[in-house]
Every structure is written in structure tokens, then in C-alpha cells.
Amino acid sequence: MPKTDQGKLKITLKGPEVLNNPRFNKGSAFTREERDQLGLRGRLPFAVDTLEEQVERAYMQYKSRESNILKNSFLSSMKSQNWTLYYALLSKYLVEMFPIVYTPTEADAISDYSHLFRRSEGLYLSPPEYGKMEEDFLDACEGRELDLIVVSDGEAILGIGDQGSGGIGISSAKAVIYTLAAGIDPAKALAVTLDVGTNNEDLLKDDLYVGYREKRLRGDKYDEFVDKFVGLVKKHQPKCLLHFEDFGVTNAQRLLAKYRDQHSVFNDDIQGTGAVTLAALQAAIAVTKTKLSDQRIVIYGSGSAGLGIARQLRDAIIMESNDDKKADAKQASSQFWLMDKYGLIKKSLGKDKIRDEIEGDFIRTEEEWGSGEEENGLLDVVKKVKPTVLIGTSTHAGAFTEDVVKEMAKHADRPIIFPLSNPTKKCEADPKDLNQWTDGKALMATGSPFDPVDVPGKKKKYVVAECNNALIYPGLGLGSILSRSSKMTDSMIISGSKRLAELAPAIVKGDPDESLLPDFGDAPKVNFEVALAVLKAAQKDKVAREEDVPEDEEGLRKWAEGRSWKAQYWEYEYDPEGVR
């Protein structure tokens, strides 16, 4: 951006224009000189505040809101007024405010989006305006070289399902986390909703619904709509990362597979969940001093998250096998036993009970399992498989019973148990029960935060890792952005997961009772490390297009840090040719 010799930012906005622009507004922090130049004298209270003083005032206002949804609304209002203050406040109180700007409170805000709507949060694209999509896309991106586009079609939002045009809320929230945890410039990010209708009858009957009031677009017309959007991204923003978020189970994997070799594309529900789970598992097997290829893995729940985890772990097994005996997909898939509402996924269930998204290599044959309906429950599978790893993505509360866990512990010295379903009330098991049933031997990670649990026979507590995608997806995205990768490769994701695992307190401190993942409060530092690993993998895979990357480690770190957006105020100077 154009600056003076004194490092001041040249802007072409004055008076109400600058006060109403959240990118440049500083509120009470405009200096006397800026107030004179920008026509703000008399428009602001006399005192000149520092950013720190503004943050403390804002925090007091935030705390005065009596409910989480009111706190969410307050923060949304602040974001629309002053980006720098908004991100400075969130950065200082990241752990406290993360559940307010994301799950679970953001889900409540999205479900009531039409009633809370006040102003645009990004780009809304709907079928009746299909012919004007390019014009609308260019209008949203005018004069901007974007680093990030987050897009959702609103069909599978945060466990609350189809929210139609409210999907813009999740796109916006994800973009916010990219800025908080990876330093992505909010001016170079765009939130998009593909408002292709909704099958949510409550929304269709709501007189205040602000979205496209039709049933969801399906089939060829849906594919044509999505394809046109992706084509515009590739044409006009060829170097940006395209992040798919909360697409329905019938479309998420299919769209990822379709576009991942055409552009730098990422799906957090599939790849992010898989990547953070892989990191926790890599930390766990480092504790057990085994290998990925040694594991027998039962995944209870085979929706988008469960399948994404299975694919990610399988890819890691293939990649980490030694060169002279590299595992193929079929061999690696044989280490997995997938389960859904019908029990173990096996051929004898018939095609009508096996979803098309599930690859054949994951489906168990009659030869190895039998053709009957018997011995198909979780306890039966655990008895026969003797798993070393048990992962839950079912939203079936209490599915990991005492019988199941004790049976697993008979055959695994340190059973690795990840009940990952959200929210807490849908978790497959409580960590304190898992710890008790295994005599403190279980290595655990959960999808929701849990307090440390007592370890039988010890005075210390076991720290339960939270498999929070925000520990890794911002770093994966930042690595792609820094390298300007033409696509997001499997090795880029696996390299990021490996680096995250190395940062786990259980590994860093050499204490198996510590967490298998870093604390969420360290998300910015952790994601920076992940990003560097991803960048190096992109270079190794020859998909990096950025040419000015330093080769030495110290230079690389300084270069990457210099490209990180920080919540700080610039000094402004008015210039008719400046930034608008």
C-alpha cells in the first residue's frame, strides 16, 4: 500500500467515509494531526485513546452483555465498525471469546440469521442471478488480490444442519479465525455463500427469511452453479486459497475430489478434521513407541468427518511407509474398520445400506467377516479386531461403554481413544470414565474441551487434548498462501500434521500424561509452525509458485512473519491518489 517517507499510509477517505470504513476506522484513536487532515475534528470526542485503552473499554462493554448471543452480536457490530479493534480484542482474549465467535454460539447466531440480519458480511450468490455471477464476483473483488475465499452452501452448518443463506455466517467466522490464528489480512479475505435454496421448512415458512426461498438446487443444475463459481475464482483470483466449509455429505467429498487438482482447494470438514486427528494420533503413537502401520483402527461414525479421518490416516500410512516396501491404498485401508448406524460396513449389508462415498477398500468382505447380521455391533467388532485405536464421530452419546473400553484395554497396553463428537452432550464417552475403565492407560483426545482427569494411582492429572481444527487449518491455509501453491497436496497436509504433533506437550515435555495436542491459546504460534512445514512441503512437491522465499531457516521465518497481518493502527495521511 502507498506510504509516505515517514511510513504513514496514504488514504483517499475523509470525514464520514473513513469513520464508516471498518478497514481504516480508528475511532477515538485518530491523532490530532489525522483529525485535521481527514476532516474528523468535531466528529469525535476530544481525548485521543491508544488501542490498548480502546481494547479495555470494549472488553468492559463485552462483559456487560448478559448472554453469549448478545456478546456475539456485540462483537459482530464491532467488526463492522473497526477491524483493528475487533481483532486486537479477540487476540487478547482468544480462549475466552473463541466459543462466542465460533462454535457453539455462532451456531445460534446462524440459526437466527434472518432475524438478526443488519448488514452484509460478504458475497451472496443465488440461482436467479446466475447470469450476473461474474459481474457480482468482480464487484466484490474490485481492486483486491485475495489470499483467501471461504465458501459455504449452508447445508451442514455446525451440527445444526441446513441454514440456507445463513451459511454466510460460517464463512465469515472461518475467515475471522484465519486472521486470528494465521495472520491473514482481513482485507484480502472474502466470505461467500452459495445460496442455492434450503430444505429447512422452518426457514421456508419464515416471513423474515432473507435467503432464496426455494428448495435446494440439486443434480446437474447445482453442479453447474458451483462450477461457474469455482471457474470465476480460478479466472480472477488464481493465487488465492479456496476453502470449502459445511457442504452436505453428498457434495463435500465429491466437490473436493473434483477441484483439488485444479486450484488450491481445502475442505476443513474433511481435511482439517482428518489432519488434527492425525496429529493427535502421531503424538499418541510416539508415546507408545509404535508406528502408524502397526495400528488397527476402528472408526465409529462414517459421515464426512469419519471418512475424512479414515482417508487422512490412510494417506499418512502410505506416505510414511518406507520406500522399499511402500503400502498401497488397499493394504493401508485394511487397517481400518468403519462403522455406521448399520454396524460394521461390510459387503453383506448390500448397496442400499452403503453410501456411495465409501471406497471399496474400506468395505469388509464376507470372507473375512461372514455374511450374517450377527457380530456387527461395536463390542463385537472390538472383540474380533482388537483395535489399538478407537475413534468416535457418530454423535451417539455414550457409545463407548465400559464393556467396549475394557475389552479394548485387554489387548492394548495404551489404548488410544478419541471420542470426537460435538457438542459435549453427544460425545461417545467422558474422559474421566475412559481413564477409570483403563486404569489410567488410555491416551485421549476429544472434540470438545474437557477438564484434566484424575489418574488412578497417581497424584497428577491427565490433560485431555482437544481436537480443535483451529489448531491446524489456519496453518495449512497460510502455508498454501505463502507458497502460492497451485494445489493443496496430501504431503502438505501430512507435513503440517506431523509438525503439530511435534509441538504436543506430551512430546515436548516427554510426559505421557500431558496433552496430545497444544493448548488452543497457543493457536497463533502453532499455526505459524504448521505453515512453515506446509510451505516446505509445497516446494518439495513442486507446486509452490512464490519465487522470493528465502532458503535459510532464519530468513524464511522473518520473511513469513513480515507477511503476517497484525491488529495495529497505521498513521494516515490524506492523499487523493491513496488507498480507498
TrEMBL record:
The keyword Magnesium is assigned to this record: no
Biological process according to GO: malate metabolic process
Catalytic site positions: 102 (proton donor), 174 (proton acceptor)
Recorded GO CC terms: cytosol; mitochondrion
Residue ranges of domain Malic enzyme N-terminal in the record: 79-260
InterPro entries in UniProt: Aminoacid_DH-like_N_sf, Malic_N_dom, Malic_N_dom_sf, Malic_NAD-bd, Malic_OxRdtase, NAD(P)-bd_dom_sf
Residues the record lists as binding (S)-malate: 422, 468
Keywords: Metal-binding, NAD
Cofactor comment text: Divalent metal cations. Prefers magnesium or manganese.
All residue ranges annotated as the Malic enzyme NAD-binding domain in the record: 270-539
Coiled-coil intervals: none
GO molecular function, one term: malate dehydrogenase (decarboxylating) (NAD+) activity
Cofactor(s) listed: Mn(2+); Mg(2+)
Residues noted as binding a divalent metal cation in the record, renumbered to the chain: 245-246, 269
Cited SUPFAM superfamilies: Aminoacid dehydrogenase-like, N-terminal domain (SSF53223), NAD(P)-binding Rossmann-fold domains (SSF51735)
UniProt record similarity statement: Belongs to the malic enzymes family.
The protein's name in its UniProt record: Malate dehydrogenase (Oxaloacetate-decarboxylating)
Species: Kwoniella bestiolae CBS 10118
